[in-house]
Design brief:
The chain is built from 13 helices and seven strands. It is mostly helical. The chain starts with a helix and ends with a helix. It holds the Pfam family Peptidase_A24.
C-alpha cells in the first residue's frame, strides 16, 4: 500500500479507535490520554499538508484544500461540541469526532496494485463528513438488528426495537438503562450506572434489597456514613464496607422512600441525570419482577470505528445511495 507519508501516518488512528471502541463496550469509559497523542499527530499532519499545498504549483488546489479544512474544522468540531452540550454525545465521543475533523479534513488516498482507496469520494471532498455520515448509518443499523433479533426469539414488546430482556439477577452486570417503570414501558428508565452508584453508596447488593424491600424503603435502613458511590462503572463497582452500622439511619423523613433524595443530595456529582422519582421507580420494578427490559444502547465509538474503516476502504456510503436514486 502506497500513499503520501501524512496519509500513511493517519492510519495509526485505526487501531487506536478500535481499542477505544472495545474499551467503550467493556467499561463505557475511555481515558482522556487516549486522544492526546493522536491530537498532536493530527495537528502535525495538518500543518504538513498545509505547507505542501501552500508551496505547490496549483492555486485551485490550494483554495479547495483550505475550503475543505475550513468546513471540517468549522462545522464538525462545533457540531461535536453541540451534541456533547445537549447530552447527545459523551465526552469521549465528542473528543473523538473533534479529532477526526482535524486528522481527516480531506480525503486520503491509498494506492493498491489495481485500485485506489477510498473507492467512493464525494463532490465536496470533506472526509470527516464522510466518516460522520457513515457513522450515523452504522448507528441506525443497530436498532434494526436488535428488533430483528427480538422478533426471531419471539420477544414482542414496545421495547423490542431498542432493548432486550435481562434477568434481574444479572442487571447490575449490564450497562444501559431500564426500559420499564411501575406503569409500563418507559424510555427514560433508571440508568444502570446510577443503580450501581446507589448500591455502593448504601453498601448493599440488589439481592439484599430484593430480599426485604419494605425495610430498605425506610430511612432507618440508610447508612450513617455512606460509601463513596464511585462512577457506576463495572470496573470500579464494589468498595469497602461502611465503618458504621449500615442500619443506623439518621432519622430522615419517611417522605423519601429508598433514600433516593438523600443519595442524590449526598453525592458530589450527578448520577447521570437521575431524578429521585427515576431511582424510586427503578427500584420498585427491580424488586417486583424477575426479568426486565434493558436498553444497552451502543457506545458511539463502535459505529464511529465502523464508519472510519468503511470510509477508508469503500468511501461515502450515503453519497453512493444518493447517486443510485439520482439525487447526487
Amino acid at each position: 500500500m502506497l500513499g503520501s507519508i501524512p496519509d500513511l501516518l493517519r492510519l495509526v488512528a485505526v487501531p487506536v479507535f478500535g481499542w477505544a471502541a472495545y474499551r467503550d463496550v467493556k467499561t463505557r469509559r475511555v481515558p482522556n490520554r487516549t486522544w492526546t497523542p493522536l491530537a498532536a499527530l493530527a495537528v502535525l499532519l495538518l500543518l504538513w499538508d498545509a505547507y505542501a499545498v501552500w508551496t505547490g504549483p496549483l492555486a485551485v488546489g490550494q483554495r479547495l484544500f483550505f475550503v475543505r479544512v475550513a468546513i471540517s474544522l468549522g462545522f464538525v468540531v462545533p457540531l461535536s461540541y453541540a451534541f456533547w452540550y445537549i447530552g447527545g454525545f459523551g465526552g469521549a465521543d465528542a473528543k473523538a469526532f473533534m479529532l477526526v475533523a482535524v486528522l481527516f479534513p480531506v480525503y486520503p488516498v491509498y494506492y493498491l496494485p489495481t485500485v485506489a482507496l477510498p473507492l467512493q469520494q464525494t463532490a465536496i471532498g470533506v472526509f470527516s463528513l464522510t466518516i460522520l455520515s457513515n457513522t450515523v448509518l452504522a448507528g441506525v443499523a443497530y436498532p434494526a438488528a436488535v428488533a430483528l433479533g427480538n422478533l426471531a426469539r419471539g420477544r414482542l414488546s414496545p421495547a423490542m426495537v431498542i432493548g432486550r430482556p435481562v434477568s434481574v439477577e444479572e442487571v447490575t452486570e449490564e450497562y444501559g438503562r431500564l426500559l420499564e417503570s411501575p406503569d409500563g414501558f418507559d424510555r427514560r428508565g433508571l440508568d444502570l450506572d446510577a443503580l450501581r452508584m446507589y448500591l455502593r453508596w448504601r453498601d448493599c447488593t440488589l439481592d439484599d434489597i430484593r430480599s426485604d424491600p419494605t425495610r430498605h424503603r425506610l430511612p432507618t435502613s440508610l447508612p450513617r456514613v455512606p460509601n463513596d458511590p464511585g462512577d457506576g462503572s463495572l470496573a470500579t463497582d464494589g468498595g469497602e464496607p461502611a465503618a458504621d452500622d449500615p442500619l443506623a439511619g439518621d432519622g430522615d423523613s419517611v417522605d423519601d422512600p429508598w433514600g433516593a433524595e438523600r443519595f442524590l443530595s449526598d453525592i458530589d456529582h450527578s448520577a447521570y441525570g437521575t431524578s429521585p422519582d427515576q431511582l424510586r421507580d427503578g427500584l420498585e420494578v427491580l424488586t417486583e419482577r424477575e426479568e426486565v427490559w434493558v436498553s444497552p444502547g451502543i457506545p458511539f465509538l463502535v459505529p464511529m470505528f465502523v464508519g472510519l474503516v468503511v470510509s477508508l476502504t469503500y468511501g461515502d456510503v450515503l453519497f453512493s445511495l444518493l447517486q443510485a436514486i439520482g439525487l447526487a
